Amino acid sequence: MNGPTLYSIGELARRTGLTVKAIRFYSDRGIVPPADRTPAGYRRYGQDAVARLAFVRTLRDLGLGLDAVRRVVDQELTLGQVATEHAAALDVQITGLRLWRAVLTAAAATGEPTIEGMERMHRLATLSEAERHRLVDDFLGAVFDGAPPHPGSTGIRRSLTPELPDRPTEEQVAAWVELAEMSTDPVFRSGLRRLLDELAAGQGGGTAGPPRPDVVALARDAVAPALASGVDPASPRADPVVAALTSRCAAAVGRPDDARLPAWLLHRLRAASDPRRDRYVHLLAVVNGWPAPQPLGPVVDWAVEALSVRTAR
User: Fold this and answer.
1) What phi, psi does 183 have (nearest 5°)?
2) Which of 74, 106, 180, 252 is the most exposed place for a label (fewest CB within 10 A)?
3) How far apart are CA 188 and CA 194, in angstroms?
């Protein structure tokens, strides 16, 4: 009576598409043990080895390690347990790859990245949550601590605080890296501090009563329609826009709408004219998952040019 069909390692290789070397490797590690050996010591495998090797190949293609493969094949672990553990491990790898991709993308955007610059970007991208909070607190402290009292400073500080989510996208990581670099720049910090001082000056330096609209917000509301319509700030068509802006400003900050007001307003708007502030606010929105903000630079530039022309006259 014939016994069960047994295959040589070469026959098993032809049936599975695996190399003899790979099958011998799995066999030596007990994942696909031989069913028997010939008197000369050659391995023989049963019919179940074909299905077993196909299963092993699938698990290896999914990235499972040899120990996990052996335990699944031997039914020490269920596929569900292995899938859960492997998915968690892949999440960690994916997060790391996203960080590296974001760093490389940010480095490439600089044109000619340096080794030092890439190391700094990588360090910023891989900060722990506590380290990120310390960096943000240091930045905001340099801008706000000891500043003149301003009734809206608490809200402004909160609105400038980045909070990277636990599972950030590549875009958020790249935005965080650029934002973090900006926040460590002493020139950018001092520029924001000057803007805060100007805001406090525009409030009269006091804290009583509700906060007044700042000059940038006033310029945005008054100028945006003219800017969208293509009105030249130096043209006569801009005269009523400038008149409306100075009138609103006078009412908001409690100053007379006289010949000195345009120069005062021009000084405030020039102090607020920093293109990097728009960039910071844009990056902040990306990091925090907020809607994209409307850039204020074009509005401020239009108002500054319009006021400059008229004060020069």
Assistant:
1) -70, -20
2) 74
3) 10
